[in-house]
Amino acid sequence: MTQDDLTAKQLDYAVFLPAISGFYATFVGKQRNEPYVDPARLPAGLTDMEQMNWLNSQKALFPYKWSLYSGGHANLDLNKQDWSEDMVRNREPGSFMLGDSGGFQIAKGLWEGDWRANSGCAKAQKKRAAIFTWLDTLSDYGMILDIPTWVIHDKKASAACQITTLQEAVDATRFNNEYFMSNRKGKDNGGAKFLNVLQGDNHTSAEQWYQTMKHYCDPQQYPGKHFDGWAMGGQNMCDVHLVLKRLVALRHDNLLQQGLHDWMHFLGTSKLEWAVLLTVIQRAVRKYVNPDFTISFDCASPF
């Protein structure tokens, strides 16, 4: 089969991040250590599972250097060898990985605990520390551990994480921000860069969230520790009016600086029309504000 280099075709488009699922990573990773996949299951012309690992530029049938992987379904224990995680843990140098922090798992009650700020919950703190270490070790960029605002409208979700109001979601996310900021190694010391996640389920709550969280990206307030870009969640990732309004605010607040805030990710956004829209926005920001600015978007585990 002829290799189709998708990395070379990327050009200046907004970057689609294929979200690697656990089962896909398992098939690629375990095959590196043992004959995990029955050769009879491989289609004609396919001789090695590594051909399906797009992060391997030499062997992949369709090399593509960008991906997203969620800590929500990862093995967070980095002290033990896990071949099912090897596609991520031992990816090719120069490939790009955006690490998702697992706020969705909190909202769904899959990560048990009282996630309210200063709750003192041992379960929540153990998971908070584990996901931070995982992100800081394996990601190029990682998303801070946010509490999605849709939790407050879902009784089951609220009961699972003990977050019942917008203010509690804001305070809990701010608490996580402080933890991440105080513990990060920093990009100059081999750590990940971090994206400040913006939530909100309407324009009013999105504005409250932004005004509360924006200073975490401010190099004047947090020199050497500030977060390095933005992740758009909730209403921010599906409302064009709000997206443009937020970009204007970011420019006004000097929080789209070249070399400091070069990345913006749109959570769970994978519609073709949004790929076009985000490409247009990326090109405009590069032309008028920050020539290194990149927008990425993903969908929920297509692989």
Describe the overall structure.
This protein is an alpha/beta fold and 303 residues long. Helix content is 34%, strand content 12%. The protein contains 9 helices and 8 strands. It has an 8-stranded parallel β-sheet with strand order 1-8-7-6-5-4-3-2. It is globular. It starts with 14 loop residues before the first strand and ends in a 5-residue tail after the last strand.
Produce the secondary structure layout.
Elements lengths: L14 E3 L4 H10 L34 E5 L15 H4 L6 E5 L2 H5 L14 H17 L2 E3 L11 H7 L4 H18 L9 E6 L4 H11 L15 E4 L7 H13 L10 E4 L5 H17 L5 E5 L5
Distance between the termini: 21 Å
Number of extended strands: 8
Structural class by SSE content: alpha/beta
How many helix segments?
9
Q: State the low-pLDDT regions, or none.
A: none
From the spread of the alpha carbons, the general shape counts as: globular
Strand order within the widest beta sheet: 1-8-7-6-5-4-3-2
The helicity comes to 25-40%
Mean pLDDT: 94
- Strand percent estimate: 5-15%
What order do the SSEs take from the amino end to the carboxyl end, as H and E? Answer: EHEHEHHEHHEHEHEHE
Largest sheet: 8 strands, parallel
Report the C-alpha radius of gyration, rounded.
19 Å
Structure summarized in a few sentences:
The protein is an alpha/beta fold. It has helices at 22-31, 86-89, 103-107, 122-138, 155-161, 166-183, 203-213, 240-252, 272-288; strands at 15-17, 66-70, 96-100, 141-143, 193-198, 229-232, 263-266, 294-298.
